Amino acid sequence: MAESFRTTSCASHGHPEFTILFTEPRLPGMENWLLSYLESTVAAGTRYQPGETIQIGWNLVRVRGRDDGTLGLAERTDAQTWAEQVDRTLRDVWYQREVAAGVGLTDRLDFPGEDQRATISSCGLESPVLVLARTEPDDPESSGWSVECFEDHAHRSSYYTTLLELATAMPFAVQFFALPVATTVLIESPEITPTGTIRPHIVDAEGVELSPIPGSYLDYLVNGSPAD
Predict the structure, then answer these.
(1) Residue 8: other Cβ atoms inside 10 A
(2) Is 163 in contact with 113 (CB distance < 8 Å)?
(3) Run of H or E residues at 115
(4) Does pLDDT of 8 surpass 70?
(5) Phi, psi (degrees; rounded to nearest 5) at 186
(6) CB 195 within 8 A of CB 189
(7) Which of 152, 172, 185, 186 is most buried by its number of CB atoms within 10 A?
(8) What is the pLDDT of residue 129?
(9) In the structure, how many helices (H) and strands (E) does the chain have?
(10) Amino acid 53: pLDDT
């Protein structure tokens, strides 16, 4: 059953209120985070119009008019389809923040855009260890992210895709997209980990693996729960 939440202070600035919809169980507190963000930008003078897009985290959401006079937000359900909901957008922000917090990088969160480009090594997709590496982008169309090959062999050709397309092929990779430039993530596939889930290793610019903070979400991904 869909849940809706509404801003309360936009009208005092001569701006329509926002109504945001969830169609799936929501992560606690994320609705307040988004409502506060919208209210603060309106208070600072931003005026939103139906049809325009806003970047929330790495996702684009589209503003739309609603029959009740408020403004709604729609997110992509695939590359061509938009639906009035914010489930994926806020879920992604939550996980990306948790991953960064797990290695003390919250203050260095760097959200790319879902339509930005990623570089994919063809043979890198076949390795049991997926390598996600982020370098300084060379143009505004690039996210800086690449999928590289872990194996020591003659590598095959690379190609470009959007982050949105990469996320469709590898949903588990999305939680790492907001890590900063000069970060590399080595992701062991579930087939080779003792927990049967992915196991990531976040490495800094000097090649040093960052240890997850005990009890964090990232600690769970790397080491499993105490019962595992």
Answers:
(1) 10
(2) yes
(3) none
(4) yes
(5) -100, 120
(6) no
(7) 185
(8) 85
(9) 4, 12
(10) 97
* Rounded-to-integer distance, Cα 228 and Cα 220, Å: 10
- What's residue 176's pLDDT? 98
Q: Sign of torsion, CA 71 69 37 21?
A: negative
Confirm if 120 and 158 have CB atoms less than 8 A apart: yes
C-alpha dihedral sign at 93, 97, 100, 106? positive
* Segment 155-179, tens digit of pLDDT: 667 899 999 999 998 899 999 999 9
End-to-end CA distance of the chain: 33
DSSP symbol at 222: H
For residue 110, the model assigns a pLDDT of 97
User: Which of 8, 72, 71 is closest to 36 using CA atoms?
Assistant: 8
Element (H, E) at 99: helix 87-101
Among 23-27, 48-52, 148-152, name the one with the lowest average pLDDT. 148-152
Amino acid occupying residue 94: W
What are the tokens at 4? Answer: 């809706």
The answer to whether residue 86 scores a pLDDT higher than 60 is: yes
Residues in the chain: 228
Strand 117-121 with 142-148, pairing: parallel
Single out the residue of 18, 9, 181 nearest to residue 108, CA to CA: 181
In one-letter notation, the amino acid at residue 44 is A
Mean pLDDT of 203-209: 94
Residue with tokens 């290695």: 103
